[in-house]
Structure formats: structure tokens, C-alpha cells
Write a structure and sequence with these properties.
Oligomer: heterodimer
Structural class of chain B: alpha+beta
Largest sheet of chain A: 11 strands, mixed
Structural class of chain A: alpha/beta
Helix content of chain A: 25-40%
Number of helices of chain B: 15
Radius of gyration of chain A: 21 Å
Bound molecules: zinc ion
Number of domains of chain B: 3
Keywords (chain B): ATP-binding, Ligase, Nucleotide-binding, Protein biosynthesis
CATH superfamily of chain A: Amidase signature (AS) domain
Number of helices of chain A: 15
Strand order of the largest sheet of chain A: 1-3-2-4-6-5-10-11-9-7-8
Shape of chain A: globular
Order of helices and strands of chain B: EHEEEEEEEEHEEHEEEHHHHHHHHHHHH
Family (chain B): Belongs to the GatB/GatE family. GatB subfamily.
Shape of chain B: elongated
GO molecular function, one term (chain B): glutaminyl-tRNA synthase (glutamine-hydrolyzing) activity
Largest sheet of chain B: 9 strands, mixed
Pfam families (chain B): GatB_N, GatB_Yqey
Number of domains of chain A: 1
Strand content of chain A: 5-15%
Strand order of the largest sheet of chain B: 2-5-6-9-1-10-11-12-13
Catalytic activity (chain B): L-glutamyl-tRNA(Gln) + L-glutamine + ATP + H2O = L-glutaminyl-tRNA(Gln) + L-glutamate + ADP + phosphate + H(+); L-aspartyl-tRNA(Asn) + L-glutamine + ATP + H2O = L-asparaginyl-tRNA(Asn) + L-glutamate + ADP + phosphate + 2 H(+)
Number of strands of chain B: 14
CATH architecture of chain A: Alpha-Beta Complex
Largest interface: A-B, 44 and 30 residues
Helix content of chain B: 25-40%
Distance between the termini of chain A: 21 Å
Strand content of chain B: 15-25%
């Protein structure tokens, strides 16, 4: 029966309708995606672990491998957790299960979500479904590639500096990085606690809103969560009254590809046609200091969050003559280079004598970034820019140059530092590769972002199926 | 000329709160239990597990802060204290650093020579470490072949109380500790049992020439599990340091483990390894803002504190008696017995000596029955009284059957026995009449023996004196 289901085009909303109307059973649907995985994942490597039995009554989902799944191996793409099988579900995984979703498997990521290309996975990179020689973006490249290639109707990623938004842009998906505190982090392998946020990766905006509705909400197991206002499913294309700001520093960022700029400008012209007003604005400090600030805060928190991988209770344990040596050998053998680099950066930033200059100052800058955004939101409902200055780059292109890799996230990081929601939607192609448009709003403005995203989606008519798979 | 030396002592006390659950998870908090049966993903630091603070523990810390006249912060935050150790599963302890819940308090310690005010620098909340069991023949870490970890205790709520270094004698340090323990127990926060580790303390000791306000190198005494050992250890350390200075030497900063059986404190490790704990605000938790109404509610739950009661009772009894009654937790029973008509001094004596020897919990005693018993103490045989005392804690204890066994005080019953004793001991009679009045006790003893202890010794004494009357 799976032959009748076009997983490349079927949206989650449509899939849900098929199951609910009884036209397709939950198991048949799951099998259709499983067949697609069997056919394509050999060349994509989007999945690290596959589930062999569907265990729900609804539609399937794929989860980034930093999300704990009870009884299903969760590695964070690290050797140190190679054989770790959680005894509990992350809150978001439990919410998906409660909504009847069946788990397809766990998707590839940069190790501990540290990276922008999924090349830092200890289990090998994921390939971009639009061009197998290119990266899918990171860290959540596996989830984005899976959704883009029809291996899952939708998926969850996690976004610290742009790990949902960037892969969604590179693979032609819709990806939301929610307002900090609206989605529980309980059970999500921590990278940088004050920035990590789980978000949906989908084929279209309505699917994204549907999944965000399911996973968001206050969680008694995560003290940093808050009550979330109702999320409106977007309808129609009317944008009258919507005020769009174009931060100059984001839209004219150094190294922006002409094709990316053109696609974004075309999308903005459509927004104007639909009734939105557009005006240029300034976001100087956030862009100038955002990246540097991020690379102090995130590694600092990571250095502490990753200290628990000591070989004592679970995961890899290497031998050593005493506790200290055992821990050193375990971490030496278990962590990859990028993880070690960030642990060292973060440890340094927190060291006595350097704390005020680095971590302390970064936290102050973060407040400045937040204020700069708040001021703009007095005049604008949404700030728009490209999600990334470029389209997906070739595998290996930045693997040896950490700084170039870090710069990939320069446009997504400022809003993340301010705890703001950001939606990346595909707005066209540049040399045959998807271009992502980033929509950023004030806290809890997801419904507004969905409204704009949905209207543009209808107006642009982007074909989400990679050309080589059509 | 010789210098007079002044000791400078500071205390750091840890008290384990007896909340039903642990500090940051809902595992049972309590002594005992098979190893690792009171654990969960949070207190075992599984990937993605998050802390959720125990509201009760926060309230109890505030209550203690109020009892210690601290300022309660209107904003307090938790910090991470990072270091690797097998008993610390996250490799950081969630503690408080520069924004503790309670600060700038004091505890007034009454002494025989007047009151001494000890400054409280801070009282903060943190989580306890787990328990390492080093499996080795010597039982010490040096010869260990393996370390087992029991995480049952890991994550228990701990309050840390730090005094100002303004204690100047071992005796005051000891009284402070006793008074603090009694305060904590009365507030219902902890059992504060030294032998079970629910109260632990470290002592910092240095000495300086009297009259100077310098602070010289201090040593830290650990491992003291009784207040008397603490006093002894402090005395010994003061003497050691004075000797070093008088011989022209210098004191090294080191940690000394106290062994009560040895003559000297054994240095555990010379010179503390410089530890950089890389404190930073715990990003998994939000700042605490104790509500003023909550603080006032807690203040209302605090009754008259031990210091005030010692002060009050010392108006009736000696300081010594007042101190023993209050720090022994006996004064409420004492007051009830005195209210019932017992003689204050006699009641204090009975409580401080005979009653304490029984080991009965004062709160198990019915004051009414106890009053009756104390009132009849002089009228019933000693053996009967002691027997009764050993049962005062029994449920439903009644003094009646004991009080009914009144000593024989009827002269007509005792006179023949006395006459017989006088008759049988002519030599002693002669000596007595010759002026050796001390022999009165001998005759009374003989009569008590003859009557099987049932005679009232005061009546016997009177009758003997009459009959031997010069
Ligand atoms: Zn627990």
C-alpha cells in the first residue's frame, strides 16, 4: 500500500487526515516512510538509529539524536554515548508519543549539536538531498535532510545558535526556533542551557504550527519554561498592517551571495504586495557582538554541561589507574575535536581571573542585544533577513577552518542571544539550492511569524521537493 | 617578654534538611535504603535531566535565616560549582555563590561570662554529594583498590552556614555549635545528627597576638563528629600554632583530619591544591524572589529561640543549668514540670542528670505525670523512682502506681528497727557520742538496709539523731 503514498510531497497535515479518515493505517504510513528511508538513507545518512516497530496510532516523526527516547539509543552523535539507551523520554518525545506519533528513528547531528554542517558527527556526515556533495547545514542536518527527502513527514531539531534554522534553510524546509522557555528542554542532551530550544522542522508553515502546538507549554520538569499563548494556525495571505523591519547589518552582511540577496528581495516584494509595510532599520551592536558573545556563553555552559560524561554511570568508559586518569582517558577517547575545542574555550572563559572579562562581559552584552531588539519591536512586528548569507556549501569546505564555520551562524545568532523566536522559510533557489528567509519577532510572537511565513509560502510557491528527486 | 595569643576561629556548618524529597528531584530524601535505590535520572545526572528546586527546602532555609537574624535576599540565585569527583554526578554542585538566600545575621551565644555575638556571614542552600565507599583493606583512600558510589544521599538539600571569624575560644565555638544544632532541631529543619552526617562542620583556626587585628594563615580542621572533639581539636590546634610561632616558625595552610584517639591532628594533605571551581549562574534555574508575605508567614512559625530561653531561664536557675536544659532540649519539659508545681532546681537536677541518663526523648514525656513523679521523689524509695523514670516515655505512663509505694516514714514502725541497729553497734554509738557526727550516715544506711530500702531516709535520719541524742 505504501506505493500509493508520495512521502516527498505529503505534508504532515495531509498524512494526519489520511490516518484519521481511515484511508491509510498508521502502520502503513510508517512503513511508507520506512521504505523511503531504506531507499534513500544509504546516500543521505540522515538517521543514526532506526526504530523497527511503530508504536503509536498516528503519523510518524523523526527526532534529532539529542532528544532522549526511552528504550531507543540516544547518542548525541558522540562516541561517548555510543551505547546509551535512555530510561526516560524527553518531555518533547513524550508529548509526541502522547499525540499518537510513531517514532521512525533518531537523526544525525553535529556531535552534541556543536557545528553548522553535521560534519562533526562521530558517525559520519549527512548529505544534502538537493546536492549530495553538499552539507545539509547543522547541527540538525539529519532532521532537515530527512524531511526534505521524504524520509519523515516532520521532525524535531534543537536550536542553540541556529541548528534548526540553518539546516532548514539549506534543505528547503520550514524550521522554527521557538521563544526561549516555550518548549521544555527536559531530556534534551544539553549543549548550552540558556540558549538550547527544541523546534519543529517541516515541509510547510501550517505543519510547523501544528507541531509547535504539540511540543510547547510549561513543563514542571523544566524550571525555565513558561505558559505559552495559544498558537493560531495560519490561514490566508492578507498581510495588511504587518510592519516588517529590515535590519541593514543582517541584510547587507559581508559575503552575502547575490542569489541569496535576490531571492530574499523577491520575497519581500511579495510581502509588500500582500499589504505589509517594509522599512530598513539598524541592529548594529547585535550583529557586531552577537557571534563573539555567543562563542563565550555557549562554550562556557557546554564545558559544564558536558562534564557529566565521566565514564562513571553510563556511556563510554576507558581504563585508567585511578579516577582522574579514567575520566581523562574516557573524555579523550569519547569526544571529537570540535567538542574538545569548545570545552577548552568554555573552561577558559569561566576561569577565575578571566570570568569578568569573558563570561561576565558576554552576559552584559547579551542584555544589550536584547534591548536593541526590544527597541526595534516598538516599530516593527517582524524583522526579516536571509537565514544565512550563502546556500549549502560543499562537504569539507569549512571542516578545517573552525572560524569560517562559526561565521555561518552570524545571522541566526543575534535573535537567539535575545531569546527570540525565528522562523526560516524557503524563499527560492540560488544556483539550484534553497535560500532561507529568516523571520524574527518579539517573544511569543510565533503566531505572527507563522502568519507572515504562510502568506509568503503561498505567494512564492516554492517546490519543497529537491529537484534531483522530482 | 612573652606574647599573649588570641585564637581566631571561623565555622562552616552543613545541615541536611529533612524534607520529604531531595533538593532538585522528587526522590525520597532520607537516611538508609539499599544503595542506589533512591535515585532518578536527575540525581544520577543522566543526559538532559534538569533540576527543579524543592520549595520546602527554600522555605526552611529562609526560616533558619530568620532565626539567625539574617537579611533574606529579595533575589537569590543558584550557581554551579564545577569539579570532578565520583560522588558528584553532574561534575558540578548546584550551590549558591554571591547571591545567597540569607546573609549578614548573628547568633548570640550566652556563656557563664556573659553573651558573645557570633556573626553569620551567610546561610545558603545547596545539594549534597553522593557517598563514596572506598573498598580497601586500610579503609583510607590511599590504599583503595576500588570506589563504589551510593547516590541515595546525592542531591539531598543542605544548608551551609558560614560564621564570621569572630570566635575566640574553643568553648565558645562548641557552645555556638550546640546552640545552632538546637535551633535547627527546634525549627524542625533537620535531625542534625553528627553521627549520621546530617550535621557536619569544618573549623578554621588561626592565632594572632592579642590586640592585633591581623588574620594569619589558618588551618582547616575536618572530620570532627562530636562537639567535645571539636573543642579538643581546636584547643590542640591553637596550642600547636602558638608553639610554632613561639619557635619562630610559620603555619602552613593545610587541612587537618581530626583523629580523637591520636595525640596530634594528622595533616590530610599539606597545602590545598588550588581549585578553580569556575562558578557561574546555573542556567537551568531561574532566580528566586521570596515573597514578603511568605517570609512573614515563616517568621510567624518561629517560637522563642534557644538563646532567649537560656537568657530567661538563667534568671531562675544558674547559667549552667539553663544552658544544659536548653541545649539539651529539656527546657520545655522543665517549664511544664515547674508549672505543675515542682521545685525548679530539683526539676532541673532530675532532668539534667537522671532523666538524660535514660536516653528518653523529652517530647515523649507527659509533663503532668512527670510532675507528679518529681513531686514525690523524696517520698518514695530511690529504686522505685529510678524504675518509674525509665518508663516516663512509655505511652500512657502513669505516676500513680509508683507514687503509691511511699517510703515508710511512720516513726512507730521505724523506731524498733532503729533501736535494734543501735543495740547491734555499740562501738559506733560510742564514737558518735564522742563527737564523730559523720557516723550518722552509717546508722541511716543500716536502717535502710534492714527495711529493704523502703524507709524514708530523711525521717530515719531525724529519728536516729533523736535516739542517739547526746
Ligand atoms: Zn532523584
Amino acid at each position: 500500500m505504501s506505493a500509493g503514498i508520495d512521502t516527498l510531497r505529503l505534508t504532515a497535515e495531509e498524512a494526519l487526515a489520511l490516518v484519521e479518515s481511515g484511508q491509510v493505517s498508521s502502520v502503513e504510513l510508517w512503513q511508507a516512510y520506512r521504505d523511503a528511508i531504506n531507499e534513500h538513507d544509504g546516500e543521505l545518512h540522515a538517521f543514526l538509529t532506526l526504530v523497527d516497530e511503530p508504536d503509536g496510532s498516528g503519523i510518524p516523526i523523526a527526532l534529532k539524536d539529542v532528544i532522549s527516547t526511552r528504550g531507543v539509543r540516544t547518542t548525541a552523535a558522540s562516541k561517548i554515548l555510543e551505547n546509551y539507551v535512555p530510561v526516560f523520554d524527553a518531555t518533547v518525545a513524550a508529548k509526541c508519543r502522547a499525540a499518537g506519533m510513531t517514532l521512525l528513528g533518531k537523526t544525525n547531528t553535529d556531535e552534541f549539536a556543536m557545528g553548522s554542517s553535521t560534519e562533526n558527527s562521530a558517525y559520519g556526515p549527512t548529505h544534502n538531498p538537493w546536492d549530495l556533495s553538499r552539507v545539509p547545514g547543522g547541527s540538525g542536518g539529519g532532521s532537515a535532510a530527512a524531511v526534505s527527502a521524504g524520509l519523515a513527514p516532520w521532525a524535531l531539531g534543537s536550536d542553540t545558535g541556529g541548528s534548526v534554522k540553518l539546516p532548514s534553510a539549506f534543505c528547503g524546509n520550514v524550521g522554527l526556533r521557538p521563544t526561549y522557555g516555550t518548549v521544555s528542554r527536559f531530556g534534551v542532551v544539553a549543549f548550552a542551557s540558556s540558549l538550547d530550544q527544541v523546534g519543529p522542522v517541516t515541509k510547510n508553515v501550517r505543519d510547523n504550527a501544528l507541531l509547535y502546538r504539540i511540543i510547547s507549554g510549561r513543563d514542571e520538569n523544566d524550571s525555565t519554561t513558561v505558559d505559552v499563548p495559544p498558537i493560531a494556525l495560519p490561514e490566508g495571505t492578507d498581510l495588511k498592517g504587518l510592519r516588517i523591519g529590515l535590519p541593514r547589518q543582517l541584510n547587507e552582511v559581508e559575503g552575502i551571495e547575490p542569489g541569496v540577496k535576490a531571492a530574499c528581495e523577491a520575497a519581500l516584494a511579495k510581502a509588500e504586495e500582500l499589504g505589509a509595510t517594509i522599512e530598513e532599520c539598524e541592529l548594529p551592536l547585535s550583529v557586531e557582538y552577537g557571534l563573539a558573545c555567543y562563542y563565550l556563553v555557549a562554550p562556557a555552559e557546554a564545558s559544564s554541561n558536558l562534564a557529566r560524561y565521566d565514564g562513571v554511570r553510563y556511556g563510554l568508559r576507558s581504563e585508567g589507574v585511578d579516577f582522574r586518569e579514567m575520566v581523562m582517558h574516557t573524555r579523550h577517547d569519547g569526544f571529537g575535536d570540535e567538542v574538545k575545542r569548545r570545552i577548552m574555550l568554555g573552561t577558559y572563559a569561566l576561569s577565575s581571573g578571566y570570568y569578568d572579562a569573558f563570561y561576565g562581559t558576554a552576559q552584559k552584552v547579551r542584555t544589550v542585544i536584547k534591548r536593541e531588539h526590544d527597541a526595534l519591536f516598538e516599530r516593527f512586528d517582524v524583522l526579516v533577513s536571509p537565514t544565512c548569507a550563502t546556500t549549502a556549501f560543499p562537504l569539507g569546505a569549512k571542516a578545517q577552518d573552525p572560524l569560517a564555520m562559526y561565521l555561518t551562524d552570524v545571522l541566526t545568532i543575534p535573535a537567539n542571544m535575545a531569546g527570540l523566536p525565528g522562523l526560516s522559510i524557503p524563499c527560492g533557489l540560488s544556483d539550484g539550492l534553497p535560500v532561507g528567509l529568516q523571520l524574527v519577532g518579539p517573544q511569543f510572537s510565533e503566531s505572527t511569524l507563522y502568519r507572515l511565513g504562510h502568506a509568503l509560502e503561498q505567494a512564492i510557491g516554492f517546490d519543497v521537493v529537491p529537484e534531483r528527486l522530482r | 617578654m612573652s606574647t599573649t595569643w588570641e585564637p581566631v576561629i571561623g565555622l562552616e556548618i552543613h545541615v541536611q534538611l529533612k524534607t520529604a524529597t531531595k533538593m532538585f528531584c522528587r526522590c525520597r530524601n532520607g537516611y538508609g535504603g539499599e544503595p542506589n535505590t533512591q535515585t532518578c535520572p536527575v540525581c544520577l545526572a543522566f543526559p538532559g535531566a534538569l533540576p527543579v528546586p524543592n520549595r520546602r527546602a527554600i522555605e526552611e532555609t529562609i526560616k533558619l535565616g530568620l532565626a539567625l537574624e539574617c537579611t533574606i535576599a529579595d533575589r537569590a540565585i543558584f550557581h554551579r560549582k564545577n569539579y570532578f569527583y565520583p560522588d558528584l554526578p553532574k561534575a558540578y554542585q548546584i550551590s549558591q555563590y554571591d547571591e545567597p538566600l540569607c546573609a549578614n545575621g548573628r547568633l548570640v551565644v550566652p556563656t557563664a561570662d556573659g553573651e558573645v555575638e557570633i556573626g553569620i556571614v551567610r546561610a545558603h542552600l545547596e545539594e549534597d554529594a553522593a557517598k563514596n565507599v572506598h573498598v580497601a583493606t586500610s579503609g583510607r583512600i590511599q590504599g583503595a583498590t576500588a570506589t563504589l558510589v551510593d547516590f541515595n544521599r546525592g542531591g539531598s538539600p543542605l544548608v551551609e552556614i558560614v560564621t564570621a571569624p569572630n570566635i575566640h575560644s574553643a568553648d565558645v565555638a562548641k557552645r555556638f555549635l550546640q546552640l545552632l544544632r538546637q535551633t535547627v532541631v527546634e525549627l524542625g529543619l533537620s535531625d542534625a545528627e553528627l553521627d549520621k552526617g546530617s550535621m557536619r562542620f569544618d573549623v578554621n583556626v588561626s592565632v594572632r597576638p592579642a590586640g592585633s587585628d591581623e588574620l594569619r594563615t589558618r588551618t582547616e580542621l575536618k572530620n570532627m563528629n562530636s562537639f567535645n572533639f571539636a573543642a579538643k581539636g581546636i584547643e590542640r590546634e591553637i596550642a600547636r600554632q602558638i608553639k610554632i610561632y613561639e619557635n619562630g616558625g610559620t603555619v602552613d595552610q593545610e587541612t587537618l583530619h581530626f583523629d580523637p584517639t591520636a595525640e596530634e591532628s594528622a595533616p590530610m594533605r599539606s597545602k590545598e591544591e588550588a581549585q578553580d571551581y569556575r562558578y557561574f549562574p546555573e542556567p537551568d534555574l531561574v532566580p528566586l524572589h521570596p515573597a514578603p508575605e511568605m517570609i512573614e508567614g515563616l517568621r510567624g512559625q518561629i517560637g522563642e529561640l534557644p538563646t532567649a530561653r537560656i537568657r530567661r531561664i538563667a534568671n531562675t536557675l544558674s547559667f549552667y543549668d539553663a544552658d544544659v536544659l536548653v541545649t539539651g532540649g529539656l527546657d520545655r519539659l522543665w517549664a511544664a514540670v515547674v508549672d505543675g508545681g515542682a521545685d525548679p532546681k530539683e526539676a532541673a537536677n532530675v532532668l539534667a542528670n537522671a532523666f538524660v541518663a535514660t536516653g528518653i526523648n523529652p517530647s515523649a514525656v507527659n509533663p503532668e505525670e512527670f510532675t507528679k513523679l518529681v513531686a514525690s521523689r523524696s517520698e518514695i524509695p530511690r529504686a522505685v523512682f529510678d524504675d518509674a523514670l525509665s518508663h516516663v516515655g512509655d505511652p500512657g505512663f502513669s505516676a500513680e502506681p509508683y507514687v503509691a509505694q511511699k517510703a515508710v516514714s511512720d516513726a512507730s514502725a521505724l523506731e524498733p528497727v532503729i533501736a535494734a541497729v543501735i543495740e547491734a553497734n555499740p562501738g559506733q554509738v560510742e564514737q558518735y557520742r564522742g563527737g564523730k557526727q559523720g557516723l550518722l550516715g552509717f546508722f541511716v544506711g543500716q536502717v535502710m538496709k534492714e527495711t529493704g530500702g523502703s524507709a524514708d531516709p530523711r525521717v530515719v535520719s531525724e529519728l536516729v539523731r533523736e535516739q542517739l541524742g547526746a
